[in-house]
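Researcher: Dear colleague, please comment on this protein.
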Amino acid sequence: MKQSKLFSLIKQLPDKDARTMADAIETHKRDSLKKLFSVLSTARRADEPEAADVFKTVFKKKYTK
C-alpha cells in the first residue's frame, strides 16, 4: 500500500488514540473492517505493507484487478 493515506493516518496515531479507535472498531458489524484495522495497526511500527498482501489477509483471497 505504498503512499496510502489510510496507513499514514493510522501510523501517526498516538498509542492511546489507536487503542480508542480499535475499541470503537471492535463493535462494528463488518468483520473486514476489523481485520483491515488490525493489519494496518500491527504494521504501524514497520514499513507500509503492500496492498495485495493486505487484501489477501483481510479477504483470504488473492487480489486481482
